[in-house]
Amino acid sequence: MAMKPISLKQVTDITHGKYVGDPALADTLITGVVHDNRNVLPGNIFACIVGERVDGHSFAENAFSRGACACITEKELENPAGPYIMVESTLEAIKALGKYYRSILNIPVIGVIGSVGKTTAKEMIAAALSVKYNVLKTPANFNTELGVPLTLLTIQEDHDAAVIEMGISEFGEMSRLADMVRPNFAVMTNIGACHLESLGDLNGVLKAKSEVFAYMPAGSTAILNGDDALLKEYHPGEGIRKLTFGLSQSGNDCYAYDVKTIGTDSVSGRISFLDRTFEAELPAFGSHLILGAMPALMIARLLGVDDADIAEGFSSYRPVGGRANVTDTGFIRLINDCYNANPVSCGASINSLCSLNARHVAILGDMKELGKNSAQLHYDLGIHAAEKGVDCLICIGEEAAHLHRGFLSAAPNTPAYHFPTKEDALSFLSIILNKGDAVLVKASHSMEFEKIVDELMQLEPEELQPILSDKE
């Protein structure tokens, strides 16, 4: 495979940089752009990023030794083993390259946006298209202003479609991403309480994410969650076709029904779109998966994929990272969903937990960046957990104290514990948990609940389980 041809001279012009090195090498065609010297392949450009802890310029020579044809730098290099292009900002140079490269592509590009479920939808869309088409999709954690252009620059000439996840946390960020991606399809999964410290409220979240529509080509399609109150009423603008999906049959172009979870192994449901019903079988845990399958089915059908190929593609779907991965440890059924958390995703995970035939234990931590309403949002989630049937709640963190209070307000006689830190909680887990429990672990990524998952993977029942009173 090869990327569309771009020479070092073109890179210099696109980035408004200064070429330093042998002029005879300026016509060299690049094979890709990377920012991690360990990933350099022959013919790549190595972009020297100045980070908080590491200065990429320190690894320029190593990149050359691995076969880099050039570097993009913000500084002069001493005795470099090859040419380099010096720019004011390496990040802005990569973004300029990503934008240019997207402009010379003639394949459908699908942008995936939303507060919750972006990665699931991205993976589902790629799976649904994968049997018929060669699909490029955003790798893990590459939905940022650096990751998006680097992803665009990995699109090869034999790719038929690209699925690009786009994550934001502030106003203007979506505009910068969309200016590069220019999606032909934009999937918006929902508008939820995320990054409220910078976006204010749900209307602010909608305003920030909907910046994408100003950068979509005429004739593009917006696929929005019609069950979301704000998206249901939102109109993406002239020249953009709006289609909606959801569990409600009223008003949605695509809807799902008869959704069933089959233990922790799979989810099934019927999806109606374009006057045809699709029998979906999704080999993973969580009824929320159907919300990723609907836009995937819509895009696949619109791009000419037949239902048999879509079904085969769905059968290859697997959760990514710490997203609803289920493991039978021999002691408990562990649901590792600790990649990130907000009120919408936590509510969905609790719903899925409580669909299982087991004692339902939820280990929940702080949900970050919820702004001035953080305490109330945590409290409300506690009420939701109680009403859905959580049998035992373990809360960890400062904000999670409000979650604990909310739970006890609705289920005062149900076991519920609060610990200030992970370390405080870890020594009690074997006392609180019982063999056969279904245990959900979820919190914002910065809480580092992977440490709890690691502990639970090793956990075995103690011979004696002393009575533990509800811990405040």
Could you explain the architecture of this structure?
This protein is an alpha/beta fold. 32% of the residues lie in helices and 21% in strands. The protein is built from 17 helices and 20 strands. The strands form three sheets. The protein has a nine-stranded mixed β-sheet with strand order 7-8-6-9-10-11-12-13-14. Strands 15-16-20-17-18-19 form a six-stranded mixed β-sheet, sandwiched between helices. Strands 1-5-4-3-2 form a five-stranded mixed β-sheet. Strand 15 and strand 16 form a beta hairpin. Helix 4 packs across helix 10, helix 12 packs parallel to helix 13 and helix 13 packs across helix 14. It starts with 7 loop residues before the first helix and ends in a 14-residue tail after the last helix.
Question: Which key phrases capture this entry?
Answer:
single chain, 472 residues, nine-stranded mixed β-sheet, globular
List the helices and strands and how they pair.
Elements: H1 8-15, E1 18-20, E2 32-34, E3 44-47, H2 60-65, E4 70-73, E5 84-86, H3 90-103, E6 109-113, H4 118-130, E7 135-137, H5 147-152, E8 161-165, H6 173-181, E9 185-188, H7 196-199, H8 202-209, E10 221-225, H9 229-233, E11 241-246, E12 254-262, E13 266-273, E14 276-282, H10 289-302, H11 307-314, E15 325-328, E16 333-336, H12 343-353, E17 360-365, H13 374-388, E18 392-396, H14 400-410, E19 416-419, H15 422-426, H16 429-432, E20 438-442, H17 450-458
Parallel strand pairs: 2-3, 3-4, 4-5, 6-8, 6-9, 7-8, 9-10, 10-11, 11-12, 16-20, 17-18, 17-20, 18-19
Antiparallel strand pairs: 1-5, 12-13, 13-14, 15-16
